[in-house]
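Researcher: If only I could read backbone structure tokens as easily as an amino acid sequence. Walk me, if you will, through where the backbone shape changes along the chain. I have put the entry right below:
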Amino acid sequence: MSVLSNLSASGRAVRLAEAKSDRSDIRCPGVTRISTLYKDDRFEKCQLASIARRTAKYPNICMALVDERRAPSRDVAKPPGVLAYDLVQGALVRWSSTVDKSLPDPPTAVLLHGILGCRKNWGSFARRLANAFPTWQFLLVDLRCHGDSASMKKRGPHTVSSTALDVLKLVAQLRLTPRVLIGHSFGGKVALSMVEQAAKPLARPVRVWVLDATPGKVRPGGNKEDHPAELISFLSTLPKEVSSKRDVVEVLIREGFSMDVAQWVVTNLRPTESPGSPTSFSWAFDLEGIAEMYQSYEEKNLWEIVEDVPGGVHVNFLKAERSLHRWALEDIQRIRAAEELAADEGGAVEMHVLEDAGHWVHADNPDGLFKILSSSFQMLK
């Protein structure tokens, strides 16, 4: 009998508000993927300031790319790591942060996942973008307490703001100047917070995409809406190590969570390396930290940066047509009003609706999302 079989079910009907995992790993032709666990945590404010002085030009020449994993230093004790990431590069990108520092970085987009997600959520979509826009590169990040970044113990508080600062440190250390920031749900607020904390070092123009999230307080949902806080709470009652992913799926379904949510959650289980022992799995996240992050997501208010957008910053909100996320008429009206204000101040705010999609926009309607986002990569050369 499974160790999970005695867990009781309460029959709650729950839809989670964070992204489905990318279940495919098919590479697009002409796309290079560099997977790196970045471990140098040295960071100075002057590094952020230097980003503003770099442009996003690229040499239109093809060449082989080099794996960016750094050799461990024998002389210097390793400080705590920053974040784990993948760098998906188009066929015409010849840049590497470790090969020739004199080369200007190519136009770069940063893609951020939501609560209980990971960088793999964006894998297939990023490869599609890189195939369509071969001069661009796409930085996929595991946020603090998530995925491979969970093993890097980060100091609290675990908030939207501290998560955004993590990403700013990473792009500075990689010597990148993001031209596009794309964040889903919690990641959308992180992208807005990046603008709030480092508006000047960001490139101009820079386009920010907030996918199915509002800038203000997350409102309570109805019975049929998603309840991520309940999922986080229930996951905290499960064993830290389990023998079967299927057992976890069954328990989650009995508890009232949907099959989609259950199958997505178990993508956070990783095989436990125990030589000579039966195969088991452990969770690849810091659930206590994630609970704190989700509370910050519910409470963080970023309306000020939306209603007073810096010049050269274009903030795009995307609402999923079938989303169970807590959109209110007041939010939509306030964003519409911000569109007019920004136009007068040299910035921009824009509202979009993705048809035939629920909250998991990049899984529910990837074609529609690709069409909407493509404008950013066509306009920013």
Summary: The radius of gyration is 20 Å. The chain has twelve helices and eleven strands.
